[in-house]
Amino acid sequence: xxYLEPGRPDQIAADLRGAFQQRYGxxxxxxxxxxxxxxxxGEHTDYNRGLVLPLALPHATYAAAAPxxxxxxxxxSLQDDSVWEGTLDEAGPGGPRGWATYAAGxxxxxxxxxxxxxxxxxxxDGRVPLGAGLSSxxxxxxxxxxxxxxxxxxxxxxGARRLVVDACIRAETExxxxxxxxxxxxxxxxxxxxAALLVDxxxxxxxxxxxxxxxxxxxxxxxxxxxxxxDGGYAARRADxxxxxxxxxxxxxxxxxLESVERIGDERVRRRARHIVTETDRxxxxxxxxxxxxxxxxxxxxxxxxxxxxxxxxxSCDELDAAVAVAVEAGAVGARMTGGGxxxxxxxxxxxxxxxxxxxxxxxxxxxxxxxxxxxxxxxPSAGAGLV
Length: 388
Ligand code: ADP
Ligand code: MG
Hints:
- The chain starts with a strand and ends with a strand.
- By secondary structure, the protein is of the alpha+beta class.
- It has helices at residues 9-24, 100-112, 136-151, 158-175, 183-190, 232-248, 258-261, 267-292, 295-312, 318-329, 355-368; strands at residues 2-3, 30-39, 51-52, 54-68, 72-77, 80-87, 119-126, 195-200, 205-210, 216-222, 334-338, 345-351, 375-378, 386-387.
- It folds into two domains: 2-193, Ribosomal Protein S5, domain 2; 210-378, CATH 3.30.70.890.
- Helix 2 (100-112) crosses helix 3 and helix 8 packs antiparallel against helix 9.
- It has eleven helices and 14 strands.
- Bound molecules: adenosine-5'-diphosphate and magnesium ion.
- The site of adenosine-5'-diphosphate has 20 residues, from strand 7 and helix 3.
């Protein structure tokens, strides 16, 4: 069985400092850490000004940084051999290529926001599986942001946290070119230990929701079907949502109701909008149910959410459908796919004593059907980004 431990932050940071010293021949001045996330409910609702309920994983990305006096930037990753080197002025849109857009783009976006940054050498180590719908991209961005803000002498107070969220969203959308909403960066920076984060993208307000998970485990299964948010699927969903809002004459689908959505002319656009409107309506009830330990409501709304993503929004796949169905058959209270879709991960709420059985049942089903071997992890609600 493939099971992913988050690792100990102090140990990972110490190892990363060693690797940094070896690569650059100098000591790292700061190590930033930012978590991946799993979303419990509210998929594709962020860019429709809706609600989401993600929590930060104990699995995180770590970024070691040292300042440079010549205004140059070097970025390297323990997960990818390609490196990027350029000036601070070259770190923006059209400069870096590949994975480095996410890292270097953060320096560009922070400078755009008025932060006076030095040049920097950076080395990252990501313990969030890449492209698994668990937001390794925001973990990467936010870990880099925290590290370079420390180089600039800025404390990570509430104002700086907001700055990091906004800069990392700009890096992802404008430099990396992934047309995502703001959920991932928001939870990576603002999450609190032991709680999920309820975010309202109409008001940009968020609050922690303490979950009653006594006797329950949040089990995440990475199907190993890798999604690419920068190819067309995600952008096409977003375009359909915008078309739906335009047809209804509302600024976003947050202002639409189901009755008017059912009158949308185009069948596909109608289904896309139906997912957004019904999904947003499920978020607060799931938050309340998880806070109160109401398992029946969680089971029902997770099932409706998964069906909506599969049938109306069409972002699931055979592996995700199988992981969800098998988890429920093997004893999960509820299960659904999570993240942007087109592959990625499922999340199941499982009685502690059933966790092993659920993992094994999913592995067996995947083997029988010739799918890749999935990876499992436990999603203990963890704190947002910080220095190690
Ligand atoms: P997700 O955020 O769900 O993991 P994305 O497609 O949004 O999926 O982001 C994955 C991409 O982020 C990777 O393909 C890679 O370009 C980049 N990335 C994330 N973490 C790292 C890392 N530790 N090293 C190099 N690239 C990374
Ligand atoms: Mg991502």
